DNA sequence: TTGAAAGCGCTACCAG
DNA sequence: CTGGTAGCGCTTTCAA
């Protein structure tokens, strides 16, 4: 074959010769056509008509060489990518989110986007934004693990990112913001407790870092709801360990609380267990309400009352992303997701 | 300014003018130097000495323009990327994995790799491999959610991927394989049950798709261990729903099992709850063993016995990835991670 | 110490 | 219907 003449300098001479990775030029040579034709055939370019025999020759050559197009080259040439970047969460928020994530990814891929999660643990907002911007994604969909500051948005914008979508506790300007009504979650729980006759209500505040952006607003909402009804709210710091829960349960009698909103179902389980072990009757002495409606909660005894949180569907969000990228969605929008409601079981 | 002459065709004429994204050429122009100099300065190229005033001018210009390098262009020019691709799991495997994931990402970033998770839900092995290959990552680290077939490995190899690392239930050839000893997990559980006097042992097999690659080998290991001791193993299909668990619990007496390995702690909780509700005494009539050592298990009553699974550390793996990329780790290796041991609590 | 220029792989224009 | 070719943004060799 003619290629053998320009045997390329081999990268790894030691072991398997590892021929250089095939390019569209290699495909063209093997098929006896031009690189342009290869591009037309492999991309099914409709603006140009290639004879069927030629198409087949090209496809066969590509198959034989194991040709895979080079995304970076395509991006460079096109001037834009079809990548949607999701800053990856450092805290797994449970089945609710993971289901949502899967739906989103699946829907975006149907729209021909390449979905990529970028781990951004421990990066400052601007540093993270720069790292994301290097990849020149078409859109960034942030689910709240890294704060999206105005500076970050500006960095992304200037790097050609077409759309920034945030899902979080408050709107980030210049973005399409989906605001989860966290205060509403706390308020729903507390209103329910009050409606069932409770007056002194504890609100668990996780000590784990990274949950503050959720727990703060939930506490705030709880306070508002309690204030409106003349009830009392007591913040209860709690780490996700048995020791911390035991310690809290030990001083429970002194706190004289008749109800508690435990942040979510997992903390609720932790706390409820500790309370029961310490001899506190649930819901007799203290009612407990979690959040997220995990299967877990139905397995506890008493069955756990919970706040089911309103969440946007993955498919719906994918469409928003798509419209935001092609400009149809306008410059910046804000949408409040507030539909949290209590599911009463046996613990309240 | 001179740029105003060649005002580029604006992408989105409607709203904010959105000036074209700045390139290193723009930085060079603003700083009054050549593009080469810009590259030298911003990459701290040591082979070349640039005067301090020039460096400062370049950096200032970059800052002013909000310049962010274009990863695709860099990759294209360099002929290789520093991207490590992790096919993202479609099933959240719990805190054990998520901790591992974070460590791995963090460690890889310290080694100056760009870590990217690629959602590959529902793709055939070869299709997934091609999708990954388009990004020309330096390495692919598969944690077992998509099967890595020999064909897939070949596709990746031919696309210049330097290293393929698999963590899974068996070794994939041509890769660096870390084999989790799943049979060992089942065996450990069953041996423990036998040692504590059980003879007819159920093994839960989750009906959820995607877990088969774990549950199958665990069942196999359980069978081997039972066979060696003359005990009996009964496979128990179970979906992760209350109904499925209730149904299983209802026919429990007929099964006449005195022990059960419940796949993991979550299924164990589900089953144990259903058994207790149906009036079966745990561990009196039936002993229950889970796996993964979740905090959850310690909160149950009786406290759940569990198999703690041996796992490689994220940092350690990051180093393997690094050596595999630069060739130091050799062509293909295999390492068995077998160190599972039972933590006995109260349910067995 | 700095600049000019080639070229990575690909696509889209324009000629033939 | 097919081929030639420019050029996306970047790094790096070679020359000045």
Total domain units of chain A: 3
Give the uncertain stretches of chain A in residue-range form.
Answer: 1-17
Mean pLDDT of chain A: 89
Task: Tell me the fraction of residues in β-strands of chain A, as a range.
Answer: 15-25%
Helix-strand category of chain A: alpha/beta
Shape of chain A: elongated
Instruction: For the largest sheet of chain A, list the strands in their spatial order.
Output: 2-1-3-4-5-11
SSE run of chain A: HHHHEHEHEHEEHEHEHHEHEHEHEE
Question: How many β-strands of chain A, per DSSP?
Answer: 12
- What is the CATH architecture term of the largest domain in chain A? 3-Layer(aba) Sandwich
The largest β sheet of chain A comes out as: 6 strands, parallel
**Largest contact between protein chains?**
A-B, 61 and 61 residues
What's the helical proportion of residues of chain A? Answer: 40-55%
* CA-CA gap between termini of chain A: 79 Å
Q: Briefly, what CATH class of the largest domain in chain A?
A: Alpha Beta
Discrete helix count of chain A: 14
Keywords (chains A, B): DNA-binding, Transcription, Transcription regulation
Region (Disordered) (chains A, B): 1-22
Protein name (chains A, B): LacI family DNA-binding transcriptional regulator
GO molecular function, one term (chains A, B): DNA binding
Question: How would you describe this structure to a colleague?
Answer:
The structure is a homodimer of 348-residue chains. By secondary structure, the first copy, chain A, is an alpha/beta fold. Chain A folds into three domains: 24-69, Orthogonal Bundle (434 Repressor (Amino-terminal Domain)), CATH 1.10.260; 78-181 and 312-338, Response regulator (Rossmann fold), CATH 3.40.50.2300; 182-309, Rossmann fold (3-Layer(aba) Sandwich). In chain A, 43% of the residues lie in helices and 18% in strands. The first copy, chain A, is built from 14 helices and twelve strands. In chain A, the strands form two sheets. The first copy, chain A, has a six-stranded parallel sheet with strand order 2-1-3-4-5-11. Chain A is elongated, with a radius of gyration of 27 Å. The N and C termini of chain A lie far apart (79 Å). Chains A and B meet through helix 4, helix 5, strand 2, helix 6 and helix 7 of A and helix 4, helix 5, strand 2, helix 6 and helix 7 of B. Strand 2 (114-119) of chain A pairs antiparallel with strand 2 (114-119) of chain B. The first copy, chain A, binds a DNA duplex (16 and 16 nucleotides) through helix 2 and helix 4. Chains A, B: This is LacI family DNA-binding transcriptional regulator. Chains A, B: Keywords: DNA-binding, Transcription, Transcription regulation. Chains A, B: InterPro entries: HTH_LacI, LacI/GalR-like_sensor, Lambda_DNA-bd_dom_sf, Peripla_BP_I.
